[in-house]
TrEMBL record:
GO BP annotations listed: prolyl-tRNA aminoacylation
EC number, UniProt record: 6.1.1.15
Protein name: Proline--tRNA ligase
Summary of subunit composition and partner proteins: Homodimer.
Domain description: Consists of three domains: the N-terminal catalytic domain, the editing domain and the C-terminal anticodon-binding domain.
Gene Ontology CC: cytosol
GO MF term set: aminoacyl-tRNA deacylase activity; ATP binding; proline-tRNA ligase activity
Organism this protein belongs to: Kribbella albertanoniae
Function summary: Catalyzes the attachment of proline to tRNA(Pro) in a two-step reaction: proline is first activated by ATP to form Pro-AMP and then transferred to the acceptor end of tRNA(Pro). As ProRS can inadvertently accommodate and process non-cognate amino acids such as alanine and cysteine, to avoid such errors it has two additional distinct editing activities against alanine. One activity is designated as 'pretransfer' editing and involves the tRNA(Pro)-independent hydrolysis of activated Ala-AMP.
Broadest EC class assigned to this enzyme: ligase
Family of the protein in this entry: Belongs to the class-II aminoacyl-tRNA synthetase family. ProS type 1 subfamily.
Subcellular location: Cytoplasm
Residue ranges of domain Aminoacyl-transfer RNA synthetases class-II family profile in the record: 35-485
Amino acid sequence: MILRMSSLFLRTLREDPADAEVPSHKLLVRAGYIRRTAPGVYTWLPLGLRVLRKVERIVREEMDAIGAQELVFPAILPREPYEATGRWTEYGPNLFRLKDRKGADMLLGPTHEEMFTLVVKDLYSSYKDLPLSIYQIQNKYRDEARPRAGVLRGREFVMKDSYSFDIDDAGLEASYEAHRGAYIKIFDRLGFDYVIVKAMSGAMGGSRSEEFLAIAGNGEDTFVRSAGGYAANVEAVVVPQSAPVDASAVPAAEVVDTPDTPTIDTLVDALNAKHPRTDGRDWTAADTLKNVLVMLVNPDGTREPLAIGVPGDRAIDEKRLGAQVEPAEVVAFEESDFEKNPALAKGYIGPGVLGSENASKIRYLLDPRIAEGSAWVTGADKTGFHVINLVHGRDFTADGTIQAAEVRDGDDAPDGSGPLESARGIEMGHIFQLGRKYADALDLKVLDQNGKLVTVTMGSYGVGVTRAVAAIAEGNHDEFGLVWPREIAPADVHLVATGKDPELFAKAAEIAAELESRGLTVLYDDREKVSPGVKFKDAELIGVPTIAVVGKGLAEGTIEVKDRRSNTRTDIPVADVVDHLVTTVRN
Ligand code: ATP
Ligand code: MG
């Protein structure tokens, strides 16, 4: 195939688009791959679509290779199935909702667990039909709060989503492993530097869930890993419950006067000045129990306060907290919320009033580091006062624990495999053992070997296809433009003809035709009256990894071949150039 620049539907831009912050977004727009249609909604232009299709092809080949079968659902869906699973409400403002002319509620699919479950229920009825894996590569719609970085986080995006259906847990495990293997192949072929991390399994708990994160400094996800092989999205780190400690020697709790100590730092200073410890060491922030109030807003709009107790030297990590309380959203506990609850002495709040059994009635959850028997300094629920030697289990209790405190570099990995180190990444894929949640909600049962109806167990597996294009661009560019990995570049060779002599163009056209006949896709810059400088700039911007220039060298019988990745140039004799290019591309 030959794409002629003289007629290709393409305009490259010299300036970065005003709304673009990350390199992939700037370059994909400038090089004429995508065009913004609305915030988070993009048009794919011919060059972009070629890259997108190549990514899709890789994904499709690897899904087919594990025996998954492709189908495609509509994007516009009825409300009822999503109502049945609770997601019509849970999705909250992220769901694009619409009404048809008769007033029926519909939605644009954000993900399709419901539809897949129902189609299997519709067509299958026996264990003999299973296992089954089916998938689609299709547009998804999410009214993201913060669409970002072009197609990296869009409101319309292409996802490959697959779902496995098994009769039992062992079957689900096997389907999950097959998908995991396919994903490794996909992300290897896409050329990502990636990690597989433990992910949140959401409301279901317990089941296996992993994410594939492309390592990228400006990624939105933070993950931690240890030298011993632990790797988890920071949201999914489960800090073990600290073992109980002996409190028999801890003196009785005592309320102490600590005026003007609304912060941990001021409290620690005041304690050391006025109430020094008896064991010779100083008080530190780690001796204090900090109680943080937040407000949870449920998808139906109802509000519910939550108090979280953490050691005073640790902050609450908003993302970890957010992942724990999903689908509720976390907002600030406002002054007016304090006013409504007179039991709360702002700056001096303690376990004395927190908890569903106590005066404030506010649900109170503790960081798992707060061991049974451990003693703390914390608020005495009276402005200007704290209480020391308050022992967990002896003097106070809570409603449970929560994984919301920050995870810090150097913390021990939960599995004891060494200290944790953090880095950032972009979530490219997610594999997840759903279990029976959707099958239960939508009543997907089949007959087992004994003729008994059993609920099917499911897995759900997603790859962000449009996001992959952006993430690959993010990891494959230089100061001049994009530099695509060969397998997904929009063309195999970018052939540039420069000069005025018609013979040059005739020779270039001949080479293009020969390359085409050898099965290569050629992006051929056949534009007359466009300066060599402009053509070279465009070639660098567009990012086909191999550029061949039919120009000045032709008089000496050579054609210059540039490798964008290694930045090397070689003069190749005209007679050898087609073979040379074919070999280069095929290697
Ligand atoms: P994120 O945490 O980034 O919002 P998610 O966990 O909501 O993603 P999933 O529901 O697991 O996403 O979707 C599967 C895959 O779809 C993700 O791993 C990601 O690659 C891709 N994806 C999700 N949301 C978007 C989006 N808004 N734009 C582009 N790709 C997306
Ligand atoms: Mg995910």
